[in-house]
Structures are given as structure tokens and as C-alpha cells.
Design goal:
Rossmann fold; six-stranded parallel sheet; elongated; 12 helices; 12 strands; about 45% helix; 3 domains
Length: about 325
Amino acid sequence: MTISDVARRAKVSRSTVSRVLNNQMHHVREETRRAVLEAARELDYKPNSIARSLKTKRSHCIGVVTDDIDTPYLPSMLKAIEQYAFSRGYSALVCNTGYESDRQRAYVEMLAQRQVDGIIFAASLVYSHTDELVNSGLPIVYACSHSPHEKKNSVLPDDVHAAEQVVDHLVGLGHRRIGYINGPEHVIPSQERIRGYVSALKGHEIQFDERLIRNGEWEDPQSGYQAAKELLALDNPPTAIFAANDIMAAGVIDAAHDLGLRVPDDVSVIGYDDRDVARFLKPSLTTVRLPMADIGSAAAQMLIDCLEHGEALMDSTYVPCQFVVRDSCCAIE
């Protein structure tokens, strides 16, 4: 059976059958979709993906390159990428580089050889050799990753505004000395979150104080613990500490407890990410929820829109984060 047989049975055009079977549902009515699917079922029609690829010059497969598939928040983004791609008639091939540049290069070359239609770098450090792919015209989208194009082809959380919300909340509770524990300086989230922190202080006419800034490591609660002990040992310590992720915030709470301080009575604490652990800390952690699933869907949509509209570049998108209030903050007198 061929696509022409399905078209005759459903009394529609071949192009309509193609759009329905490829999940490209724009300009297709629901009753038409049902008729096509019923005709395909009755005729036991199975699309020949190899023939389709030869004809369209597309594999209807996208590559997804990431550094660490075990990162707690990454699975929701990868799942959303796969689900959205499937809804548009594409499959997704995920590659885990383990933060190794040579391994990333090997995967990128393999994806190109397999003729994927495009690549999403998902929470991945992007090395210079990817410029070769950009120059070759292969569409690339950067989800929580550095884009070589200014304000193009990136999908990022709106970390600046979210960090501003954190500071606004603390200032609203009466805090003026707000410590900040950032992540590694070279990554986008760290750069964006401290920018929001500084911007909000300025908006409230609070003098920026470098003595209230420390840097930690994302997956190391001990780094948050040590940074908090240093901040709380200052002659004029902060009354609140904002940690750039929940793991470091957990270390902050431990440090406060070990110093005989109460959270939030003596020091308020706010984290970032809203990992599962945030709800179970004592006290439960006020934090910012990263919209990782929304970022994944938006990245897949951007890439597939690039492919189907014949565009190489699209405007970057910033996805709003959600501020989650729990028990780790209180007002000061």
C-alpha cells in the first residue's frame, strides 16, 4: 500500500495524508485527521521512513547533546524535548558527553554523519568545534547553553528576573544585608543570577557589598556550608543568605544550625532550582523553580520551526521561573 492508496480511501490529497502522518496538523481539520488515520489503519499502511528521507532530504530525527544525564533537573527537559519532537513527527537521539570535549566532538560528528536534521545542546558546555556545524548550515538550538549568536537560538530560564524576585522578597521582609553564594563564575546561570541580585539591590538603593559575595559549587553542599560560615562570621553579618542553588542552600542551613543560629529567626535562607530536597529540609526551603520542561519544549519547537520554515536563526526565548515561598524566611524587626 502507498500514500496514494490512503489518499484515495480518505478522499483527500497526498499532501494532506503526509501532514497527518507526520503530525504536522496546521491547516488540517480534526475530521480529516480521523479519516486519514482510519484509512491508514484499514489499509495497514506503514510509511517507509528510508524512502521518505531520500525524498525529503530529512531524517526526521534530531540530536540532543548534554553533559550529564544524571543531573537531577535534566530528565524533565529531555523528556519534554522528546515528547514535543514526537508530536511534530520527529524522533530524538540523546548523547551524554560526561563533560569531555573530545567525546562531545565525537558525538557531534556521529550525529552529522547520521544526517540528523538539527541538534539541541541541552545544559551542555559548548566547545569551539561546534562552530563548524553552525557554518555548515545545520540548525542548532541551545537550551541552557551558550549560543555563539547574540540573542539568537537560545532558550534560557529568566534567571535575572527570578534573582530580582528573590531580593525583592527579602527586602520586603526588612532585610538590607543580603549575602549571596553564587555558582561557578564561568557558567550562564551564575552570571545571570548575580546580575539579577545586583540589579535588585540597586533598585532598592542598597549599596552592593563585595564582602557579602561568595562562590560555591553546584553539587557540593559543603561549599555552601563553608561560604555561609564565612559570611556569618563577618563583623556585620547578613540577615539573609541567597544561595544560587538548593544544594548549596542546604549547606547554608547546616552552617547556621552548627553556629547556634535559627533559620529563619536569626537568618533567612533562599535557594534556587526547587529540587525535591527543598520541601524536606528543616525548615522547608523558599526557592525558585526552574521551568526545565518548558525550556525543553520551547527548544524543540524552536529547532523544528527552524527546520520547517527554512530559517537558520530565531530570536532567543527566556522562560519565566516560579518563586516558591516556604518556611525558611521571615521578617526582621
